[in-house]
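Hello Y.,

Per our agreement to keep a running log of every chain we model this quarter, I'm adding this entry. I've kept the format consistent with earlier entries: sequence first, then predicted structure.
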Amino acid sequence: MKHTKTRIIALLLIFVGAFLVGCTTRGSKGSSIPWGRPADFEGEIPGLTPQ
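Predicted structure for the entry above:
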């Protein structure tokens, strides 16, 4: 019984820790670094861009 309680408490602590570490918040701007967003040419088909 004692081992079961310690395992449950350990698992709960791991889940709470993973939840707190994994959560992030982003502002409306996102990132100010240039590689944090796609470039203008990404997502287009090469040679078929509008002139």
